[in-house]
């Protein structure tokens, strides 16, 4: 059972969450509870790091931002103990949850089960684990990227061969789009792993992308449900195999990502190796490049455009300026447009239906929204647009593809 930030935002909510855990214990289950930091806490910690050191040492970033989860893990264990349920807390390093050393976006390598299982054998009924954090081969604290507690939860479910992995959050399941942006958004009873994976990676933060990948790979029975609603057996949304869904819409959902930046290198040389010379330093600087467009070349020069999260713009600028100073690349200007958002439509049905892209473009044009960059893959189409049109675009697409209606 994983409880996100809003579900543990106050002592009272921790008590409510603990009661849910108690219900499962009463059914005879041993439970592993994964907790996030209290809502807002991680943002505050990230803010403190940035204020102290804008080009921070990622190891210390992790040391700071992982701490919110330590508090809730201890408080949850104490709350359970107050309910006479034998529980104890575990920080990532105590498990130990072993990760790579890619600080701030580490990947889980291994979760040994013996320590926790021994305690279950000795009568412990609930292991409360601090989500989002682990330990690197060098013995330093790592974090798994924002939203990483979801991944901790699925990884534990896989490692312990759990019967279920229930993700408790502040909405009662996965919707056709973010219900905060579109009031016609419809809760889905089921969604296919592949669609959930795309929605998550394109910005639907209800599940961290990596958690969906892990659930798909290890066949974890993954549910998303609300910690505020009365418990029931078929509440929430089940993330499952495509074959387990009877009917589905061509477009399953619309996702958005608010904090995108569009970066354009004006007039770079057009020669073999130029893309590598640009994107290698960006990758080494830890910039997550998403869309890439290279314009038509003229007289041996071309423009190269890419998108990345707004928070990485400074890093990207520095990496490219350094590469220019070293003579690895040359360009006239680097233009950063930090006012864009990415809107995507996702659906497995696109494999067999044509016309989705054309319809998407038509809908946006009839709202007067200009498209700046387009990318497509087998089951998704993404566009970059001005951020001020983001909500409008999501709502218009949701209407046009009739997502409020069930297939
Ligand atoms: P938690 O703190 O529990 O991990 P998050 O804030 O990370 O919760 O994720 C839940 C939020 O995800 C919801 O409040 C909702 O605004 C947002 N969200 C975005 N897209 C969707 C979607 N398609 N379905 C449900 N929620 C979504
Ligand atoms: N507290 C972390 C975050 O806000 C991890 C999580 O909540 O999943 O990103
Ligand atoms: Mg989350």
Automatic annotation (TrEMBL):
It comes from the Bacteria. GO terms for cellular component: cytosol. It comes from Puniceibacterium antarcticum. Pfam families: AA_kinase (PF00696), ACT (PF01842), ACT_9 (PF22468). Keywords: Amino-acid biosynthesis, ATP-binding, Kinase, Lysine biosynthesis, Nucleotide-binding, Transferase. Belongs to the aspartokinase family. Gene3D superfamilies: Acetylglutamate kinase-like, VC0802-like. It is an enzyme of class 2 (transferase). Its EC number is 2.7.2.4. This is Aspartokinase. The lineage of its organism: Bacteria, Pseudomonadati, Pseudomonadota, Alphaproteobacteria, Rhodobacterales. Residues 263-348 form the ACT domain. Substrate binds at residues 42, 69. InterPro entries: AceGlu_kinase-like_sf, ACT-like_dom_sf, ACT_Aspartokinase, ACT_dom, AKii-LysC-BS, Asp/Glu/Uridylate_kinase, Asp_kin_monofn, Asp_kinase. It catalyses: L-aspartate + ATP = 4-phospho-L-aspartate + ADP. Pathway: Amino-acid biosynthesis; L-lysine biosynthesis via DAP pathway; (S)-tetrahydrodipicolinate from L-aspartate: step 1/4; Amino-acid biosynthesis; L-threonine biosynthesis; L-threonine from L-aspartate: step 1/5; Amino-acid biosynthesis; L-methionine biosynthesis via de novo pathway; L-homoserine from L-aspartate: step 1/3. One of its GO terms (biological process) is threonine biosynthetic process. PROSITE patterns: ACT (PS51671). ATP binds at residues 2-5, 169-170, 175, 180, 205-206.
């Amino acid at each position: 059972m994983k409880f996100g930030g809003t579900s543990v935002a106050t002592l009272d909510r921790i008590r409510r969450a603990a009661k849910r855990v108690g219900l499962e214990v009463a059914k005879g289950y041993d439970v592993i509870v994964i907790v996030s930091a209290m809502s807002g806490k991680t943002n505050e910690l990230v803010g403190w790091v940035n204020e102290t050191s804008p080009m921070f040492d990622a190891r210390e970033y992790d040391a700071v931002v992982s701490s919110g989860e330590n508090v809730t893990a201890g408080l949850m264990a104490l709350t359970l103990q107050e309910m006479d349920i034998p529980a104890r807390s575990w920080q990532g390093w105590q498990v130990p949850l072993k990760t790579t050393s890619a600080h701030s976006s580490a990947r889980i390598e291994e979760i040994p089960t013996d320590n926790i299982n021994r305690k279950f054998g000795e009568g412990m009924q609930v292991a409360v684990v601090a989500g989002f954090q682990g330990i690197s081969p060098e013995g330093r604290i790592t974090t798994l990227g924002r939203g990483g507690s979801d991944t901790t939860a699925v990884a534990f479910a896989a490692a312990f061969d759990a019967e279920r992995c229930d993700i408790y959050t502040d909405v009662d399941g996965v919707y056709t789009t973010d219900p905060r942006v579109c009031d016609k958004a419809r809760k889905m009873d089921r969604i296919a792993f592949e669609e959930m994976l795309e929605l998550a990676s394109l910005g639907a933060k209800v599940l961290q992308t990596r958690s969906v990948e892990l659930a798909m790979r290890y066949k974890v029975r993954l549910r998303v449900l609300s910690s505020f609603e009365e418990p029931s057996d078929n509440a929430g949304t089940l993330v499952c195999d495509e074959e387990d869904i009877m009917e589905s819409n061509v477009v399953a959902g619309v996702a958005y990502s608010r904090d995108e930046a569009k970066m354009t290198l004006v007039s770079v040389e057009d020669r073999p190796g130029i893309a590598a010379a640009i994107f290698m330093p960006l990758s080494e600087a830890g910039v997550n490049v998403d869309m890439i467009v290279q314009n038509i070349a003229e007289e041996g020069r071309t423009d190269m455009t890419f998108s990345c999260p707004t928070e990485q713009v400074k890093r990207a600028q520095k990496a490219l300026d350094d590469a220019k100073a070293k003579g690895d690349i040359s360009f006239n200007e680097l233009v950063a447009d930090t006012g864009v958002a990415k809107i995507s439509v996702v659906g497995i049905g696109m494999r067999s239906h044509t016309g989705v892209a054309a319809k998407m473009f038509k809908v946006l044009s009839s709202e007067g929204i200009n498209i700046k960059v387009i990318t497509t893959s087998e089951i998704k189409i993404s566009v970059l647009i001005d951020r001020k049109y983001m909500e409008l675009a999501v709502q218009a697409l949701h209407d046009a593809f009739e997502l409020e209606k069930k297939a």
